[in-house]
Amino acid sequence: HVQLVETGGGLVQAGGSLRLSCAASGRTFSSYNMGWFRQAPGKERDFVAAITQSGGSTYYTDSVKGRFTISRDNAKNTVYLQMNSLEPEDTAVYYCATTTRLYSATNYNKREIYDYWGQGIQVIISS
């Protein structure tokens, strides 16, 4: 069983930045692929970004490319989401998730491949 705890959310003005962190329990963090998803009010939980076990490959949804950066520190069992140039449309509850499944070109953004989820953290961007 893996426990994930997100921190770093909050309220910022449009154009600002936030860095989300997700700390994972367990000794095998480096064997997990990690993803970030977000869910706006009344909408489905959507893929944001993902990173492979070693950090060698990253994936982003189109709307955040060039603004968000996913990274990880396996020594600290933590994955990060640096969010810059934030827009009101980025307002959502952000979730980190983990999977031991290998990423393919078509699965990294699918909720169903992720085994464990954090509790979520609110991000609000004011205009």
- Number of distinct beta strands: 11
Secondary structure: helix percent:
under 10%
| Beta-strand residue percentage | over 45%
Helix count from the secondary structure assignment: 0
SSE string = EEEEEEEEEEE
Structural class: mainly beta
Apparent shape: globular
Q: Which regions have little confidence, pLDDT < 50, spanning 5+ residues?
A: none
Note the main sheet.
7 strands, mixed
Can you give the mean pLDDT? 96
Using only C-alpha atoms, the radius of gyration works out to 13 Å
N-to-C CA distance? 40 Å
Walk me through this protein's architecture.
This protein is an all-beta fold and 127 residues long. 0% of the residues lie in helices and 47% in strands. It is built from no helices and 11 strands. The strands form 2 sheets. Strands 2, 4, 5, 6, 9, 10 and 11 form a 7-stranded mixed sheet that branches. The chain is globular, with a radius of gyration of 13 Å. The model has no long low-confidence stretch (mean pLDDT 96).
In short:
With about 130 residues, the chain is mainly β.
Features:
127 residues; mainly beta; seven-stranded mixed sheet; four-stranded antiparallel sheet; 0% helix
